[in-house]
Design a protein that fits this description.
2 helices, 112 residues
Length: 112
């Protein structure tokens, strides 16, 4: 949890409370921060926005095994946006899932 007026100076929201999870990329060189604002109250809810909505509402990850990744995500409340994983030519298997908070996450498995 990150809270207080000092954090709000970064976002421009004033006194705030934010829950943050930091993920490290498998190679250890990059990080991705996911945040959920508790206070002040959220002013817009994009959790049901379609994949083509404007804004940073989705992120895509390269995965080694899309089926295994999906199985693990479903255990945590995620669900496929469409009915199945789609194959693009002989290159990729792709899908979008919506997480329990409604965030869109793309998965891409490169076919070798």
């Amino acid at each position: 949890m990150v809270e207080g007026e000092w954090a709000g100076r970064v976002t421009g929201l004033g006194d705030q409370t934010v829950e943050i999870a930091m993920m490290r990329t498998p190679d250890g060189n990059g990080r991705l921060e996911l945040s959920r604002f508790i206070a002040p109250q959220v002013v817009a809810d994009h959790r049901n926005a379609p994949v083509n909505a404007l804004g940073y509402l989705r992120v895509m990850f390269a995965v080694d095994d899309i089926d295994d990744t999906l199985d693990r995500l479903v255990e945590h409340g995620a669900h496929l946006v469409s009915r199945d994983v789609v194959q693009y030519e002989a290159s990729y298997r792709l899908c979008y899932v919506r997480g329990p908070e409604g965030i869109l996450i793309g998965l891409a498995e490169e076919l070798r």
